[in-house]
Amino acid sequence: MTKNVLEIEYERYESLNELSVEDRELAEAAVKAVSGAYAPYSKFNVGAAVRLSDGQIITGANQENAAYPSGLCAERTAMFYANANNPDKSMVSIAIAAVKDGQLCGRPATPCGQCRQVMAEYQTKGGVPMTILLVGADYILKFARVESVLPFIFDSL
Ligand code: THU
Fold first, then answer.
1. Nearest CA to ligand 1 atom 8
2. N or C: which end of the chain has fewer CB atoms below 10 A?
3. What are the φ/ψ torsions at residue 10 (nearest 5 degrees)?
């Protein structure tokens, strides 16, 4: 038996100004995408922006339903749309932002387990690391690949 320690490396930025031009553009697209949220039940509005390998940005927002499980997170809304319409392009980056009580959350929202699993699959399919930007009003976190937020990925491909 060996005991092993897993280290997760990530970057923290104190403001959007510190990001690269591309990352900033994606982060701002995620914040803008929040306006598409339909979240009358949780009142937690989330936006996601996916950058494809050709540079284009696809956005999505959470969609809720009176039959709660029928709703979908912002991340999967964006990724499913992206892949349905661009099956031959990789997803190179995803940014996520959340608004509560009309304010961008100070602490960045972190994706749920199901969204992480979907990110993992598209990262494998795309063949390149998918970077993850979690955009908060107080700070921004950047992860270099999906494994950083989902260690020991289930991957049957
Ligand atoms: N939600 C997202 O869209 N993305 C996340 O990363 C976390 C949760 C949505 C699902 C639901 O509509 C609302 O936020 C409250 O959980």
1. 73
2. N
3. -150, 165
